[in-house]
Structures are given as C-alpha cells and as structure tokens.
Amino acid sequence: MKTLVYLLLACAFILPGFATKASTTPSVDEVGPKFTFTFELGRKSKNCERIGLCNFSFGSAERPSGPISENIVTGTAWIDNGKLQIEFNRASMTDATYQTHFGSGKFQLEEDFTLPADIAFALGVRSYTIKTGKYPLPLSTGKYDVIPVTF
C-alpha cells in the first residue's frame, strides 16, 4: 500500500510536467536568412531603364568602398514576418542613381517584380512578387548608410 501511495505521488508531480512540455509549441523565428545581393535598378520591360528593380542576383559579402556602376547597387535582403526587407548600400551607388531611385523619399516600382526562383528559395519562400507602387524610405540617410525598404 505504501508503495502505491509513493507511486501515485510521483505520478502526480511528474506527469503534469510532461503534459506541459507536450502541449507547448516551439516559438517560430519569423526572420529568414540574410543574403548580400547585387541589384540592377530600372524597369525590366524597358531594358532596365526608368525606375524599379530590373535584376536581383547573389553578390559579394564585401561592402564596396564606392559606387559600382550607374543603376547597380549592393544590399542585403531577407524575409521578416512575410515581408521582403532590403537594405540598399548607399556607398555602392552613384549620386545620380541615389537621386533617381531614392531622392524622392520613396522607392518606386513602375511594374511588378518577381524574385528569381533561386533567390526566393534561398530567402525561405516559394515565390515573392513585389507589387507596383511607392515604398516609403526613412527620413534621413547619410552618404555611407543603408537605405531600408520594406516590400
């Protein structure tokens, strides 16, 4: 009888702990992996002229010390809570590129842009289309800062 009482007491203290662990769902990290990319700015249907995103490819992790080329910039991208986040590297762009694409205080896309399949996969999504529109920029960015845009 004494053994039965000890067994019941042990079960009373141990089993609730197992039940709690079994019912608890692990927390899901909503921020995907970050990668460095090279972006060609422009409108794809206009041979990368005008405003928007034309090409998006994996880039070097090294930050350039100066502009790469007209309408070519580097940056980091990731998915956060289902939204694409891009931090464009201000030092990688010419002043003309900055004025054309970021000078208005908004980053504008004149047509939808679908991420290439390999990039979407690397970012942890099946596909991602950035819709035509004007995306707000922070009020102030210095010459050597990043320019964050949420799509």
Looking at this protein, list some descriptive labels.
alpha+beta; five-stranded antiparallel β-sheet; single chain; 151 residues; 3 helices
Nutshell version of this structure?
This protein has 151 residues and is α+β, with helices and mostly antiparallel strands. It has one domain (35-150).
Structure description:
By secondary structure, this protein is an alpha+beta fold. It has one domain. Helices cover about 25% and strands about 35% of the residues. It is built from three helices and nine strands; from the N terminus they run H-E-E-E-E-H-E-E-H-E-E-E.
Going by helix content, strand content and strand pairing, the class is alpha+beta
Q: Number of helix segments?
A: 3
- Order of helix and strand elements from N to C terminus: HEEEEHEEHEEE
The fraction of residues assigned to DSSP E strands is 25-35%
Please give the order of strands in the largest beta sheet: 2-1-3-4-9
How many domain modules? 1
| Major sheet | 5 strands, antiparallel
Total strand count, please?
9
Morphology: globular
Rg, please? 24 Å
List the helices and strands and how they pair.
Elements: H1 2-23, E1 35-43, E2 49-58, E3 72-80, E4 83-89, H2 95-102, E5 106-109, E6 113-114, H3 117-122, E7 129-130, E8 133-136, E9 146-150
Antiparallel strand pairs: 1-2, 1-3, 3-4, 4-9, 5-8, 6-7
